[in-house]
Amino acid sequence: MAEATHAGAHAAHAGPKHDYYLVDPSPWPLAGSGAALALTAGGVMWMHGSGAGGYLALLGFAGVLATMFLWFRDVLKEAYAGDYSEKVASMLRIGMVLFIASEVLFFFAFFWAFFWGALVPPEIFPTSWPPEGIEPIPAFEIPFLNTMILLLSGCTVTWAHHGLVHGDNETTKKALTLTVALGILFLSLQVYEYIHLVHLGMTIDKGIFGSAFYMATGF
Q: How far apart are CA 184 and CA 187, in angstroms?
């Protein structure tokens, strides 16, 4: 009798079986949306000369990072608790593929805008590359080096993933450390490049080239 009661209580707790895990009410979508709004609004205010906008953008950025950390923590808990079926895992993989595809199209739009302004004849679109007074960094110097660093970091993080899949924690640690080091080097060179261009007067509000360049390389 007691066993039957226990089994019934367990079945009631488990609830109906679904292909998809039905999550409990979560604050993270609302929190993430609010933080993203603060980040965007603060960034726009800061670009228009508002000092308070910079603080609002920093607050929003911190909120986005905190939301990502807490939301991913919950996702990992649910995964290790066995709440995700094979169907859910499949949908997560498809979601990542769609995310990568959307990123490709997103950046394609920025590069399209840049090359439209640079290559279309002035009679059609009154711009020319490089803009007057701007001396661009040669493509096969820092830009090429940064591209190679970016590709190499992709190789090292794949190496880390391979070690993780095969349970080789030592290899995973080494590969992730190398990936982080490459990321820091990449960002350092990117900051140097930005400082050089800003010193020459090429800022984000200087026409189509400034807008497209900083959005494509800094987003």
A: 5
Q: Give the DSSP per-residue string, 136-205.
A: PPPTTTHHHHHHHHHHHHHHHHHHHHHHHHTT-HHHHHHHHHHHHHHHHHHHHHHHHHHHHHHHTT--TT
Q: Mean pLDDT for the chain?
A: 83
Fill in the amino acid letter for 215: M
CATH of 27-84, one of 3.30.70.260, 3.50.50.60, 1.10.287.70, 1.10.10.10: 1.10.287.70
The Cα–Cα gap between 145 and 186 comes to 9
Query: Quick one: what percent of the chain has pLDDT higher than 70?
Result: 84
Residue 8 has pLDDT above 80, yes or no: no
Which residue in this structure is represented by tokens 């350092």?
A: 188
What is the domain partition of the chain in residue ranges? Answer: 27-84, 136-199
CA dihedral 179, 182, 186, 192 (to 10 degrees): 140
* Four-CA torsion 152, 141, 121, 123, nearest 10 degrees: 120
- Compare 158 and 136 and report the one with higher pLDDT: 158
Please give the structure tokens belonging to residue 114.
Answer: 């840049």
**pLDDT tens-digit series, residues 103-153:** 999 889 888 888 887 777 766 666 667 777 777 777 788 889 999 999 999
Q: What is the pTM of this model?
A: 0.61
